[in-house]
Amino acid sequence: MGPWDIMSQHFVKKGKPPQGISSFTKIRLGWIRKQQVQFVKPGETSFALLSPLSKGGDLLVVKIPVDEWGHYLIENRQPIGFDRMLPDSGILILEVHPNAIDGTGVVKVKNPISSPNFDHATYKLEVDNRNVFVDKRNNISIIPLWKEKENLGVLVTTPDRSKGAVNAALAIQKLIDQNSGNANVISEAIAAFKNKDFEKSYDIAVGKGGR
Predict the structure, then answer these.
(1) CA distances in angstroms from 149 to 50, 101, 136, 186, listed in the order given
(2) What is the percentage of the chain residues whose pLDDT exceeds 90?
(3) For the segment 8-44, what is each residue's pLDDT rounded down to a tens digit?
(4) Between 82 and 125, residue with greater pLDDT
(5) Cα separation, 110 vs 53, whole angstroms
(6) pLDDT per position as a tens digit, 120-137
(7) Which among 6, 51, 18 has a CA at the least distance from the CA of 32?
(8) Inter-residue contact 87 to 118 (CB < 8 Å)
(9) pTM of the shown model
């Protein structure tokens, strides 16, 4: 896990405070309650707004049970509190195999790009090669979304729906970035997105929001 958990790497920079710990470790320690975890099955489409993991909040983790041997954990890592020394920020995806022998890959960070030091391990909507994670074998796609205040959105869906979802999310993010008084349009587009109608969401964002 490199710098994403103090139990894996004790500091990011020498002489600086240590980083925080992952949702995997917090769950093991009992620091995350069941009510703070949203469970999503492979093949389902589900939207979540994750609070920054280090700050805490109503929803901290999305868990996708793949089979009896493993699952995914999705968390929002931001430079807040104990996480202020992290090398990056965004949606972090962990692949967990709880029955594996310690030291053989109980938990692994799913790097979106080649990053030996895990310094670009997060997924970000605005970065082309880091805005979708796909596990075709288990019919899972994970897409980072826009921010709502401090919370960061994430969508779990299927690979066949991921392209439409990414396009709609990018159109919504463009409207948010423009900050041009399109609050009603943004709300409509987000509502359609949360209702899993990505084509309608895109059409609203592009058609009413302007090209």
Answers:
(1) 11, 40, 32, 14
(2) 71
(3) 777 667 767 778 899 999 999 999 999 999 999 999 9
(4) 125
(5) 17
(6) 899 999 999 999 999 999
(7) 51
(8) yes
(9) 0.91
Amino acid, res. 206: V
Helices 159-178 and 183-194 cross at an angle (nearest 10°) of 170
User: CB–CB of 164/199 below 8 Å?
Assistant: yes
C-alpha atoms less than 13 angstroms from C-alpha of 40 in its C-beta half-sphere: 25
Residue 16 contacts residue 8 (beta carbons within 8 Å):
no
Query: Is-contact 108 94, C-beta < 8 A?
Result: yes
- Rounded distance between C-alpha atoms, residue 91 and residue 72, angstroms: 12
70: its two tokens: 């493993």
Alpha carbon distance, N-terminus to C-terminus of the chain: 41
CA-nearest of 22, 18, 24, 17 to 5 is 22
Q: With CA atoms as reference, report the closest residue to 115 among 137, 92, 142, 81.
A: 92
Q: φ and ψ at 28, to 5 degrees?
A: -60, -35
